[in-house]
Amino acid sequence: MAEAVGPRASRQPFLERVGTAVARYRELSLFIVMLILGAIVAFQAPQFISASNLTQVSTLAAIIAIAAAGQALVIITRNIDLSIESTIGLVAFVVADMLAKEVLDVPAAMTAGVGLGLLLGMGNGVLVAVFRIPAIVATLGTLSIYRGLAFLMAGGRQVTLTQLPDGYTDAARATFLGFPVFVLVAVAIIVTIGLAMRRTRIGRQVYAVGSNPEAATILGIRTGLVVFMAFAAAGLLAGVAGVMWGMYFGTINATAATGSVLQVVAACVVGGVAIFGGAGTVAGAGLGALFLGFIQNALIILRLSQFWLEAIFGGVILLAVAADGIILRRLRRSKSNRRV
Amino acid sequence: MSDYQSAPGSVAEPPAPDPSAPAGGGGSTRLLAAFARWEVLLLAVVVAFIWIGATVSPVFLAPGNFGNLVAAVMEVAIMSLPMALIIIVGEIDLSVESMAGLSAALLGFLFDAGVPLPVAVVACVLVGGLGGLFNGLLVTRAGLPSLVVTLGTLALYRGMALIILGPRGISGFPSEFTSFGFGRIPGTPIPWPFLIYLALAVVLGFVLHRTWIGRRLFAIGKNLGTAQYSGIRVQRIKLQLFVLSGTIAALAGVLLAARFASARADLAQGMTLTVVTIVLLGGVNIFGGRGTIVGVALAALALALLGNVLRLTNVSAEIQSIAVGGLLIVSVLVPNLGRWLGLAFARVRGAPPARAGPGA
């Protein structure tokens, strides 16, 4: 507690101060954990830190990170978007299909894909903000509906790599100044949103709505509009992730990205976004995505069975949320101490 | 969250009688409210589905078909019962599908290792209870949000299933076991697991709606603080519900392995979604405090009928997920719209402005 100046502040036990520091600088501590784990894995298997491997890890993680950034916005407003994986899948298929049928050229198809994502996100936003359907119910519904639309359009077909325009999927493997293009895109998006969340009025309103919706309303914040915009932004970002998903995998059918909502939410939780809103950063969510991708890759590199992956993911989520719980309790206790 | 002004039951009842209305109007509005209950609407949906099914397909009303459509949803229907109780107390258990998968994998592993089947089944159900206990302890003792805890164990239990069994599929179970899974009660089209479902629904329905335990569950879901102050041991009840949910999910996993005559680690994948959909479609409030077992049972039946009708009419299976998602959204939208219309109507008639209920 930086501002807790006074006799009591110095009496804070060391562990508690470490705990609060970890809570304050979640992104930094996650980064440090990643460095330590990375060093251990690299010691066991030097090819882990080879350029080609790092590129591969970070490219797929970048896609999840963009989706997780959108999810973080929604979670910070005290909502959740379970439909995000269906949006990614639907956008990925529609874009690939339009390219295969040569309906649109590449830039137009990509724009259309992002626009479709925005539209689907706005659909969620209307259900939650206008019709007041609890987010978990509304997006559980659209999770089925959007996936159903993908199945309806695909009808069992798949778009293969050879049907796509030449060179379309090259961007997924391209680098710029030594960095994978996808990673640069993700970083640019996350930095932009992160700055907007800190510096703009709407950004701070997102936190206000998540911390205390009633108080935010009394303060004159149009909570409904803020929630709607968070869902719309999440849809837009899922659209971007969907376009990139199609480029990364090349061959796309209606089941694309099924189950990835678990990874996206896990990235947010691991990255320190509080599931009950009001706290967390987009950068944290992005780092969380990188962390999960990194664990997945480390398992492959260390030649451990892929069957351990799910169990480890689960363990990481539980650890992250348990750490949050402990820190939160400490913070509450030290706050109530101060009030006495 | 909810303030103490919303006394139990006030949500379902009509707003305070309009002073300008005749004094005798109370009775008829109450009757109207009884008919406007969600369960009645669901029943209408079920009847409508049966009517549509009977008109579009000649085999729909055949007893064998009825048995098939019931058998197809048995596991999700069984898991939806404890899930309803958990959601009523304001928590959620996303890990049920993985627990079912873990149970099936464990069953296959133990059977493969030569453990007698009855022992293996008991072991699986016990492991389910343990998994539920783990969820419950993290939620009640560590005070962590159940949404995240069970998201974690959703991955963890599935991972454990994969570690135990890997990509193998174990079959060769004795015929008594598999015929319990997909056989019918002799002389009837009813699948055996339906007996388990029926017993569970009756017991849980009775406990929820007719005993003090049920009243406590609703009290916890309606207002946690008040429940705690009135001496209800909230954490203990929640812990017991999570244990129940894990146990039943493990049982569902065993039934699934029996129905497919094969135990695999990826069984029941994606079922949580259907289970939660059934519960919410059944009129259980996602924020807790409201819901009935009858509603949940009707929702399971409606879902089974819908799937069956679509299959019989050769409508692509994809439409089914759109229809289910749409139903789920409409199920919350309609009561919301009804309440707003009621409020708007009251305002037009110059009644004192009614206070909107908290949240949705």
Could you give the topology of this structure?
The complex is a heterodimer of chains A (340) and B (360).
Chain A (H helix, E strand, L loop, with lengths): L6 H5 L2 H11 L1 H19 L6 H26 L7 H17 L5 H25 L4 H20 L3 E2 L15 E2 L2 E2 H19 L1 H11 L1 H6 L4 H27 L2 E2 L6 H11 L11 H20 L6 H32 L1
Antiparallel strand pairs in A: 1-4, 2-3
Helix pairs in contact in A: 2-14, 3-13, 4-8, 4-11, 4-12, 4-13, 5-6, 5-7, 5-11, 6-7, 6-11, 8-9, 9-11, 12-13, 13-14
Chain B lengths: L24 H11 L2 H19 L6 H26 L7 H17 L4 H24 L5 H20 L3 E2 L4 H8 L10 H18 L1 H11 L1 H6 L4 H27 L2 E2 L6 H11 L11 H20 L4 H32 L12
Antiparallel strand pairs in B: 1-2
Helix pairs in contact in B: 2-13, 3-8, 3-11, 3-12, 3-13, 4-5, 4-6, 4-11, 5-6, 5-11, 7-11, 8-9, 12-13, 13-14
In short, what is this structure?
The complex is a heterodimer of chains A (340) and B (360). Chain A has 340 residues and is an all-alpha fold.
